[in-house]
Amino acid sequence: LAADSGWQPRALEIALAGPAGPEALLRDAVAAATALLPLEPAEAIASFAGASRATALTFAVQLRYDDGRLVTLTVRDAADARLRVAIDAHAGRAEVRTSAGESDLELALTGADVQHLLLRDRDLYALEARRVASARARRADDSASLLTEATTLRGIEAALDSGLTQAVAEFAPRPALRLLSGRARLTPPSGQLHLVPS
Description:
9-stranded mixed beta sheet; 35% strand
């Protein structure tokens, strides 16, 4: 879906549950959202259930984009791993629900009937190995999305801490100049400065 522009989400919901803990699941949910919608959100709002963020049972996050798109992420601690992804796009609607080695796919193309498929999950290690081999063969990787993921996670963290809507762009890394060699003085310098953006 990520490669087809007709399926780029206008609205996206990702719900994850599992034993990894809410913070780890939230990182996974942000990575999945960035893969499906490779744009930096304009705003993040987030909350948690529990006495503190450190002991939270669940996190709920909304990411709003400048063009009106909305991503909703919900993660919670659970004994069994479960996933739900729902996409509303120009091409139609799709929803995947996965648990206990089975995936239920509901697909409704624009102007067509709803289709249901039940998929039995294969060996996940073999699927991941195939995905990595395919990416290496194309010399593709996900490093282009890392900055967006990191900025989004920092915005979500600030929203969780403050309980307020956060402008995600405020958390983007800023270029900095670093002195690599040489020295600077107010009087004419005896050496040369070598500055590079980092």
